[in-house]
Recover the amino acids of this structure.
């Protein structure tokens, strides 16, 4: 059984390690390693911001599987997620998105969701499509091509 728990400042090291994972940095728009002080400041601000929601997916043994973040921007929640390298390719991306979306919908049933996915991230594209997200447009950001997926909370 899996569950989502709210992230806390005690998760700073875990999230720091995940964000600086080689594969994560390789696919990020900004490739440089995130510095510790920068990360702690960012996390502190996110945790204090009531428009931002960060959750950690855990299993029955309280093992950390991945992180999902929802940042409210106007009437939509922008989704960002990452799965620990030991758990990739096991359906955890689908699970964390499914659980996270349900959690946000309990708070705001009429909200919308938006996700930017690099066009070469086939696994994430398949997950968002399986969850009923629709492709709205394609954008180029710093030479990276992104598909922008959207979904209304009541869909």
């Amino acid at each position: 059984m899996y569950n989502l728990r709210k992230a806390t400042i005690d998760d700073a090291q875990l999230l720091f390690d995940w964000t600086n994972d080689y594969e994560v940095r390789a696919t990020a728009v900004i490739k440089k390693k995130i510095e510790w002080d920068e990360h702690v400041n960012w996390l502190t601000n996110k945790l204090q911001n009531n428009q931002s929601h960060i959750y950690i997916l855990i299993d029955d043994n309280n093992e950390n599987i991945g992180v999902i973040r929802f940042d409210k921007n106007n009437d939509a929640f922008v989704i960002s997620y990452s799965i620990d390298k030991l758990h990739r390719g096991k359906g955890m991306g689908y699970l964390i998105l499914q659980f996270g979306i349900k959690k946000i919908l309990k708070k705001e049933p009429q909200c919308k969701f938006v996700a930017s996915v690099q066009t070469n991230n086939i696994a994430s594209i398949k997950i968002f499509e399986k969850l009923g997200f629709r492709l709205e447009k394609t954008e180029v950001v710093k030479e990276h091509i992104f598909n922008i997926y959207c979904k209304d909370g009541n869909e």
